From TrEMBL:
Spans traversing the lipid bilayer: none
Entry annotated with the keyword Cell division: no
SMART domains on file: HTH_MERR
4Fe-4S found in the keyword field: no
Source organism superkingdom: Bacteria
InterPro entries: DNA-bd_dom_put_sf, MerR-type_HTH_dom, MerR_fam
Organism whose genome encodes this protein: Microbacterium nanhaiense
Protein's name according to its UniProt entry: HTH merR-type domain-containing protein
Key words of the record: DNA-binding
Length: 97
DNA sequence: CTTCTAACA
DNA sequence: TGTTAGCA
């Protein structure tokens, strides 16, 4: 089943230290990605960053694009296009059903 | 934990 | 340009 138990994407939250260790980058790097607009992690009332499982896959995509030679500004656009494409693909799926 | 500054490849 | 280290 595809309900809340199996599909945990934006619910699983991690601190910046554990999130950085899971993806293999430093904490400062994650803050830089957010500063550049690549990430938008949720925040607690105290201002602490909450990285969801969804955010982690984004960071991995960032690292993947970096190895290909895309800079952070370019990655930002790639991420936007991917999100837009994902939206359009979902609508096409709906129409072709 | 946060932001900022500075130095390095 | 991107990453890392140290300070407040």
């Amino acid at each position: 089943m595809r309900n809340a138990e199996a599909r945990i994407s934006s619910v699983g939250v991690y601190g910046i230290t554990v999130a950085a260790e899971l993806v293999g980058v430093g904490e400062q790097t994650l803050r830089l990605y957010e500063r550049k607009g690549l990430l938008t992690p949720s925040r607690t009332a105290g201002g602490t960053r909450r990285y969801s499982d969804d955010d982690l896959v984004i960071v991995r995509r960032v690292l993947e694009l970096l190895e290909v030679g895309v800079n952070l500004v370019g990655i930002r656009h790639v991420l936007e296009l991917e999100a837009e494409n994902r939206d359009l693909r979902a609508e096409v799926d709906k129409l072709s059903s």
